[in-house]
């Protein structure tokens, strides 16, 4: 039930039918928080009749034949209300997470209408949905939703063939560098991470492992995908290992002399066509790259922390 993320409540019975299927507790989490769950968990909660892995046509025919034996219509099912203490606790958590947004608490109220007969709750849900569609909050959130997707395909690069990127070297394996490495691995590329010694290399690997483990726990990647990505990560203490890479990203501390030394070392071993990128947040990239051959391949890639979660990337 993602409507809350754009300042809305479901408008076609979602807040009234869902509690009748899975109970108010899960319905509140899905509607007011926008929480996603797996199909298997949703089936276990009563939200799905069947999950079909193969032979879809036969399964559909069998389901249709047996549909007459289904329980009463969803809209006719009663809802067991939560206790006052449970509702107070849930509301407090939703309010804290909402951070001033109105839609989460309005979803909370709408789901509670499911305690009443369907013919009373459904019209109220529809009325509130239509009102929220005209609200400034929802209009702003919808604008942001579509704007984020529009900038992913800027018109300025239409028709420009992309450069193939397969191997990326990252210098610096701290919180930012390991986050960038995680992001690059998630994009399907291999990563060589350069650090100063064995201890720093192991710490960088551990940070990337923690990032991927967190993604696995959230259901964003599978155990196999995590293992594959970790297998695509190697560490090094030698800039010679940057040879043959398509892109280098520097993520060391904000000292222009240190950054210049990093890129001089990279340029010594990488192709003069390889892209060199600094993650600096405020230093002048032109000064960082001063004296580098073929300077048009140099740019700033300013990731926002945590780099493997924040989608925004400033390209300088």
From TrEMBL:
GO terms for biological process: fatty acid metabolic process. SUPFAM superfamilies: ClpP/crotonase, NAD(P)-binding Rossmann-fold domains. Keywords: Isomerase, Lyase, Multifunctional enzyme. Residues 167-316 form the 3-hydroxyacyl-CoA dehydrogenase NAD binding domain. It comes from the Eukaryota. InterPro entries: 3-OHacyl-CoA_DH_NAD-bd, ClpP/crotonase-like_dom_sf, Enoyl-CoA_hydra/iso, NAD(P)-bd_dom_sf. The keyword Glycoprotein does not apply. Gene3D superfamilies: 2-enoyl-CoA Hydratase, Chain A, domain 1, NAD(P)-binding Rossmann-like Domain. Signal peptide: none annotated. One of its GO terms (molecular function) is lyase activity. This is 3-hydroxyacyl-CoA dehydrogenase NAD binding domain-containing protein.
């Amino acid at each position: 039930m993602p409507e809350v993320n754009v300042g809305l409540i479901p408008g076609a019975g979602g807040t009234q039918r869902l509690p009748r299927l899975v109970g108010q507790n899960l319905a509140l989490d899905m509607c007011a928080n926008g929480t996603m769950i797996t199909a298997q968990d949703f089936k276990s909660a009563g939200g799905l009749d069947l999950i079909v892995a193969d032979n879809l046509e036969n399964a559909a025919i069998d389901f249709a034949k047996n549909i007459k034996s289904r329980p009463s219509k969803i809209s006719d099912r009663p809802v067991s209300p939560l206790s006052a203490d449970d509702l107070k606790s849930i509301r407090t958590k939703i309010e804290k997470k909402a951070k001033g947004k109105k839609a989460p608490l309005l979803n909370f109220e709408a789901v509670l209408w499911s305690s009443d007969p369907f013919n009373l709750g459904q019209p109220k849900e529809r009325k509130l949905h239509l009102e929220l569609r005209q609200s400034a909050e929802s209009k702003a959130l919808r604008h942001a939703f579509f704007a984020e997707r529009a900038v992913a395909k800027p018109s300025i690069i239409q028709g420009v063939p992309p450069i193939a990127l397969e191997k990326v070297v990252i210098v610096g394996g701290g919180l930012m560098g390991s986050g960038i490495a995680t992001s690059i691995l998630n994009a399907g590329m291999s990563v060589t991470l350069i650090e100063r010694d064995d201890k720093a290399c192991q710490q960088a690997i551990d940070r990337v492992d923690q990032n991927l483990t967190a993604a696995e726990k959230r259901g964003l990647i599978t155990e196999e995908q995590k293992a594959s990505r970790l297998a695509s990560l190697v560490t090094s203490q030698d800039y010679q290992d940057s040879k043959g890479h398509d892109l280098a990203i520097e993520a060391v501390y904000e000292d222009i002399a240190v950054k210049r030394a990093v890129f001089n070392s990279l340029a010594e071993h990488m192709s003069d066509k390889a892209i060199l990128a600094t993650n600096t947040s405020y230093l002048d990239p032109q000064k960082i790259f001063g004296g580098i051959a073929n300077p048009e391949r140099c740019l700033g890639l300013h990731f926002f922390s945590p780099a493997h979660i924040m989608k925004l990337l400033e390209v300088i």
